[in-house]
Design a protein that fits this description.
By secondary structure, the protein is an all-alpha fold. The chain is built from seven helices and two strands, in the order H-H-E-H-H-H-H-E-H. The chain is elongated, with a radius of gyration of 44 Å.
Length: 261
């Protein structure tokens, strides 16, 4: 008698009435059939339309300097006027305490020393006068207090001292409202900074790496002009004009319009 062998796989297919007839998806085949995804596009750079990285700005605290050649150093020293004459290369140093510009030839360095010395004398003179007036006012106030306690029929002395005290107070108020003597000290410091700038180049022969000798000389003269303009702008009750452009009107127009024939 022949025996019949039943397969469990076949029985599961035939005997499961609830089996779904939806075909199973092959996930690996579906993923393989998808086209490869494109790489993400880089984000646009708002500072650069080409998408390249902009160059980093130079750090102002890390300026580099270069050493002037001998010819450039001689040209700079002659330009600012620190040589004894046109044929010598000996640098002149201030030898007079009362008047430091003494012995210097006409030039930028002598003008700087003259302005600095002038405002130094102005500052010390007004400062000494201010202190003397303040001490005098204190002394007269004490005298008035002492005379007020003494019985006297004649008040001429008290009136005179009070009038002088009032004048002294008015002078001190005028100096204070004018910004003196602090304004003269600030004016002196403007030219002192320029003097130190010139001395640093003369003594070390170092200038910024992006400057040539002409730019270094022009920078010194520009600093001197700026210092004098600063002093003029800080004078009380002075009339300051607005900055104007040195270029003539329509200087940028290069095309000439010819009249029609």
């Amino acid at each position: 008698m022949a025996s019949t062998i039943y397969s469990s796989k076949d029985n599961s297919k035939d005997n499961n009435p609830h089996r779904s007839h939806i075909p199973r998806l092959n996930i690996d085949a579906a993923m393989a059939s998808q086209p490869p995804s494109a790489p993400p596009s880089p984000k646009p750079n708002p500072n650069n339309s080409n998408g390249s990285t902009p160059p980093k700005s130079k750090d102002p605290g890390k300026d580099t300097y270069r050493l002037l050649s001998h010819n450039e150093w001689v040209q700079f020293c002659r330009g600012v006027g620190v040589f004894m004459d046109d044929e010598s290369e000996e640098v002149i140093r201030p030898t007079s305490t009362l008047w430091p510009p003494k012995g210097f030839r006409d030039g930028l360095y002598r003008d700087v020393l003259t302005e600095k010395t002038k405002f130094t004398y102005y500052f010390h003179s007004v400062d000494i006068v201010s202190w003397l007036l303040m001490l005098l006012q204190i002394a007269m106030g004490a005298v008035l207090t002492a005379l007020g306690s003494v019985p006297s029929k004649n008040g001429t002395a008290i009136t005179t001292i009070a009038a002088v005290n009032t004048c002294v107070g008015g002078i001190l108020a005028l100096l204070h409202n004018s910004g003196l003597p602090a304004r003269y000290r600030a004016d002196r410091n403007e030219f002192y900074k320029l003097e130190e700038h010139i001395k640093s180049i003369v003594d070390t022969a170092l200038v910024p790496v992006d400057q040539d000798i002409n730019a270094a000389l022009a920078g010194c003269y520009e600093k001197f002009r700026h210092a004098r303009q600063t002093v003029q702008n800080n004078i009380p009750a002075s009339y300051t004009t607005s900055p104007t452009n040195d270029k003539a009107p329509n200087a940028g127009i290069s095309k000439v319009i010819e009249p029609k024939k």
